[in-house]
């Protein structure tokens, strides 16, 4: 079966050089495709939240201590909810996402966590760029509509 990508798939392929098979599999691809559909070219670093879930509060607290000691940055969350949110400031790209997932699971391995996915805010650089250009061009303020 050949893979004929739509406009979003073509954009995604150019952005991350993924094969058709890679685009079809994995939740990382789905989240990245959603970001792209929101107008985010996924080329700017931002905080990415990775969620680990544990079986009880004691494991969650112990794993939080171990992850912080290993250098991971955690959101200040309610440990009694049995999950931890690891924050990674990076460009959301498949290799980086897989690396953080692997390292966090290895660091918390003794507590047998479940990896519940990742998420981040969509960035809209084209909108920010438009506003940035408006402010920079000539440095003038918008014309006034008042009469003298």
UniProtKB/TrEMBL annotation:
Domain of life: Bacteria
Pfam families: RraB
All residue ranges annotated as the Regulator of ribonuclease activity B domain in the record: 31-120
UniProt xrefs under InterPro entries: RraB-like_sf (IPR036701), RraB_dom (IPR009671)
The protein's name: Regulator of ribonuclease activity B domain-containing protein
Source species: Candidatus Neomicrothrix parvicella RN1
């Amino acid at each position: 079966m050949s893979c004929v990508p739509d406009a979003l798939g073509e954009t995604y392929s150019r952005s991350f050089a993924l094969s058709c098979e890679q685009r079809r599999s994995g939740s990382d691809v789905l989240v990245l495709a959603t970001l792209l559909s929101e107008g985010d070219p996924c080329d700017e670093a931002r905080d990415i939240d990775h969620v680990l879930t544990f079986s009880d509060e004691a494991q969650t607290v112990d794993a939080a201590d171990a992850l912080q000691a290993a250098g991971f940055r955690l959101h200040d969350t309610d440990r009694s909810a049995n999950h931890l949110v690891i924050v990674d400031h990076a460009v959301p790209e498949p290799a980086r996402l897989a690396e953080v997932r692997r390292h966090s699971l290895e660091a918390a391995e003794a507590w047998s966590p479940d990896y519940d996915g990742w998420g981040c805010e969509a960035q809209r650089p084209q909108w920010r760029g438009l506003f940035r250009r408006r402010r920079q061009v000539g440095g003038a303020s918008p014309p006034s509509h008042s009469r003298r």
